[in-house]
Amino acid sequence: MNLILFGPPGAGKGTQAHLIKQRHELALIATGDILREEIKKKSSLGLEVEQVMAEGRFPSDEIILKIFEECLENVKEQGVILDGLPRTLNQAQKIDQIFKRVDRTVDIVIQISVDEDELIKRLSSRIVCKQCGTPYMEDSSFHPKGVCYECSGRDFIRRPDDEPEAIKTRLKVYNDQTKPLVEYYLNQGLLKVVDGMKPVAEVNAQIEALLGATQVLTRKSGCLYSAQDI
Ligand code: ADP
Ligand code: ADP
Fold it and tell me: Is the CB of 59 inside a 6 Å radius of any atom of ligand 2?
């Protein structure tokens, strides 16, 4: 199964992606995490995208799609979770083409829906593990008591693009460039919406229910295909 986690910055895509990955044998492709890793390493790609990302704007589609294709080659047969990708119509169309070439399809697009005031609140109080980037909430019940549950890291930092000016830019860029993808996936019958205003565990339960139904459908169509084949 190949799934896309879709939604504005701060909706909870990263949080849910890590939970889904723990329960299912899916590989996670999170372009934001990969770019931040390049920035940390001070690679030429990292240096190229650092300023653009800090301001809340997008690096070019070419950069994003190159990262995506490289990741996809590495995961081989495994299903994938795309977190924060695609973010433009061009990326969505190219991903469909790339998937087709390697005999994959997008099986489900899960939109996490959250009000804008709540997004600003979440982004303003987000801290991430310095080592692996797992997101947490400052001063809340999600705070990992000083230890990251993914990698046991103990240092937590704020992302430069979680500063007020960059948050404003990111929400505008989302509305202008990413939100139109809702229609693209609606037209293909792939879009499912979950209420992201609910607590993390409840959002996860909504997602798991959708994934359960999708897996049954995928299995069923697999059977039909072999029956026709015989
Ligand atoms: P995204 O990847 O969509 O930008 P994150 O998963 O990083 O979002 O979540 C943004 C912030 O909101 C993080 O600090 C995270 O701990 C917090 N968060 C995520 N889901 C919820 C939720 N359902 N309720 C409250 N806070 C949440
Ligand atoms: P969030 O969902 O909280 O904004 P991400 O980690 O997904 O966080 O993305 C952070 C930044 O990385 C984006 O604001 C953008 O600059 C860059 N980025 C990540 N994925 C993409 C993408 N698919 N297309 C363009 N830019 C991307």
Answer: yes
